[in-house]
Structure formats: structure tokens, C-alpha cells
Amino acid sequence: MGTIISRVADFFRESDKIFLFLCLLASGYGCLAVFSATRYLESNRPFLIQAICVVLGMIVAIIISAFDFQKFIDRWYLLAALGLIPVFLTFFIGFAPSGTDDKAWLDLGFTTFQPSELLKICFIITFSAHLSKIKQNINKLKYLLPLCLHGAFPVVLIHVQGDDGTALVFAIMVLCMM
Q1: DSSP element (H, E) containing 154
Q2: Residue range 19-76, pLDDT digits in tens
Q3: Which run of H or of E encompasses 112?
């Protein structure tokens, strides 16, 4: 139990206080927006789900902060597979929720899942590792071209999937990171 408390204390001590405050402020605003939008319902369930997800997100952030990030970078190929395999599965067993025209979701039985959200996280890590590796040579074509292909791959993949909004998010992420 002491180790857990120590890790939580380390998380708050070593974190960027302004960024943490802004994240908590945005999360609180999100909870308030959900409460406001659903206050006339008989149940507070949407608000409670949002609040629980905020708390779970903080717990996951603390857990992730305990890991050595370099180990993730060294195994970038596993992260790439973790992000890409579920997206490729949508082409075979994916479905389009009512009101949408893109087969970008997987039905897990107990819930649905949009793999492009996982791909965003994996892409940020792999693209950051790629940028870090070539940072001194980014202006040379032989390094820039593979980087551009790395950035274009998820954009094109998600576009082919039919989710142009998410493809645009990937394109903006590539531009901002470069």
C-alpha cells in the first residue's frame, strides 16, 4: 500500500502542475456539460459514467507514468501492431453504428470500440520515436520521405475505412508534430 501512495505522490510531484490543472479543468467542464445536457433525464447515469471515466483516466495516467517510456519506444513495432491490427479488423468484422456510414467500429459483445482511437495513441508514440530518431537529418529527403510515409499511412488507412473526420485528425497530428 505504501508503494502505491508513493507512486501517486511521485506522479503529482513530478507532473506539470499547469497542464494537470488544465486537464482536470477540461474534465470537470466535460462532466458539467454531460450533466447539463442530461439533467432532464430520469437518471444521472450519463453524468456518473463521465465522472467515473475521469477518475479511471487519472488512475491510468498514474499507472502509465510509473513505466519507463523508453521501453515503449524500444518496442515501437509492438505498439504499431497494437494500433493497426484492430483497425484492419474493421475491414472484415467492423460495423457502422446507426447514423454513420463508416465501418469503423468493432462489436466486442459487451461494448463497441472504435480502433482508430487506440491507433491515435500508438501513432503518437511511434511517430514521436521516428521524429526523435531523425531529428538532426529531418531536412534530408532520404529521411523526410519515410517520415512522410509514416505520417500518411494512418491518414490513408482511416480514409479508406470511411472515417474522414478521424483521418483529418491524423493529418493535423502529423503536421503539428512535424
Answers
A1: helix 141-161
A2: 889 999 999 999 999 999 988 888 888 899 999 999 999 888 878 877 777 887 888 8
A3: strand 112-113
Question: How far is residue 74 from each of residues 60, 86, 124, 125, 133, measured CA to CA in Å?
Answer: 21, 22, 14, 11, 11
Nearest CA to 88 out of 103, 69, 68 is that of: 103
The residue written with cell numbers 477518475 in the block is: 55
> Are 89 and 113 in contact, with CB atoms under 8 Å apart?
no
Q: What pLDDT digit, counting tens, does each position of 93-114 carry?
A: 988 888 777 888 888 888 888 9
Going from N- to C-terminal start, the domains of the chain cover 2-65, 69-177
What is the residue type of 9?
A
